[in-house]
Amino acid sequence: MVGFSGYGDARSAPGVLVEESGCVYLETADGQRWAIIWPPRFEAAWTQDGLVILRDGGAIFARVGETVTLGGQRLQARYVPEHSRPDATRVCDASRFWVASPEGLA
Asked: Distance between CA atoms of 58 and 92, rounded to whole angstroms?
């Protein structure tokens, strides 16, 4: 699980990380799709193993295709521009957003 430090004290439902049109989503077993807002200085990168999310410093935080549970919190769409790029709600077609915490996977 991804930890909680300073990013809310909730846990997402377990889901698979998927990529579509440059956005990474968490898809849960019940069909919900959450656009993920990654912590500052995290980035996505294509590697020989596929698309990965790198934490500050380059260590792999998560891989697209993995089943994960994210720490953090839900975020209403109106607050997304405060935590991400201003056009994120338009670019990433989602009605649900999750602010992921920067802690490691367990």
From this structure: 24
Burial of 35 (0-12, 13-18, 19+ CB in 10 A): buried
Residue 26 binned pLDDT confidence (cut-offs 50, 70, 90): very high
Q: Is 57 left (phi over 0), alpha (psi -120 to 50) or beta?
A: left
Q: The CATH number of the domain where 72 resides is what?
A: 2.40.50
Q: What angle do CA 27, 28, 32 make, to 5 degrees?
A: 75
Q: Collapsing DSSP states into helix, strand and coil, what is residue 52? A: strand
For residues 34 and 53, give the distance between their C-alpha atoms in angstroms, rounded to a whole number: 16
- pLDDT band at 92; cut points 50, 70, 90: confident
User: How far apart (Å, rounded) are the C-alpha atoms in residues 16 and 25?
Assistant: 8
If one counts the domains in the chain, the total is 1
